[in-house]
Amino acid sequence: METTGTGRRRAAERKRDTLERLTTERDVWVSTAHPEHGPHQVPLWFQWDGRAVWMCTGARSVTARNVREDPRVRLALPDSFDVVLIEGAAECFPDREVPTAGADAFTEKFGWDPRTEEGSFLYVRVTPRTVRAWRGEPELRGRVIMRAGTWLA
Predict the structure, then answer these.
(1) In this structure, are residues 65 and 7 in contact, taking their beta carbons and an 8 Å threshold?
(2) Confidence of residue 7 (pLDDT cuts 50, 70, 90)
(3) Cys-Cys link to 103, which of 46, 77, 84, 98 (CB 3.0-4.6 A)?
(4) Average pLDDT for residues 19-45, to the nearest whole number?
(5) Which candidate, 39, 149, 129, places its Cα nearest to that of 86?
């Protein structure tokens, strides 16, 4: 995948590149908010299952508290030139109740299984509702590649 060009990609190319990055990257910035405590942002490991982003965090973390109170989240892949922003609603699964396929895929990717740890963890699944992707100023127009959960390309 080329990330240094400034030429304008078609929507189908943006979708292809975004899906590739969701499959291969390790970290995502997770932004949440709480009505009393305000916004919070943290990087987490993530696993893309082809339809949703899976993450895991401590059950008592600020992220866990926030998504339980308000499930709206924004995710950002960590590149300020090749931008991918995902908005969706978080679904929460305690580590003892997480669907096996999601937890197993997470474990396979990272070699770490939170279900075997002593502390409690929360798996968070975010199904995208809106995805924006752009590389530099030439792609600002038309940067929405998913709207209302449907790919536009």
Answers:
(1) no
(2) confident
(3) 98
(4) 96
(5) 129
Tell me the pairing of strands 27-34 and 82-94.
unpaired
Q: What six digits make up the tokens of 89?
A: 């609603």
Question: Strand ranges (DSSP E) for 35-70?
Answer: 38-48, 53-58
Q: Grade residue 2 by pLDDT with cuts at 50, 70 and 90.
A: very low
Tokens encoding 71: 């499930």
Neighbours of 46 (CB within 10 A): 24
* HSE value, Cβ hemisphere, 13 Å, CA-based, for 84: 20
Q: Which two tokens stand for residue 105?
A: 């895929």
Measured in degrees and rounded to the nearest 5, phi and psi for residue 42 equal -150, 145
The confidence band for 142, taking pLDDT boundaries of 50, 70 and 90, is: very high
Which of 81, 83, 45, 85 minimizes the C-alpha distance to 63? Answer: 45
- Whole-angstrom CA distances from 66 to 23, 85, 122, 130 are 26, 19, 12, 20
Task: State the DSSP code for 149.
Answer: T
Alpha-carbon distance 112 to 3, whole Å?
Answer: 30
d(CA 134, CA 150): 18
92 vs 104: CA distance, rounded Å:
16
Partners of 94 in the β-ladder: 122
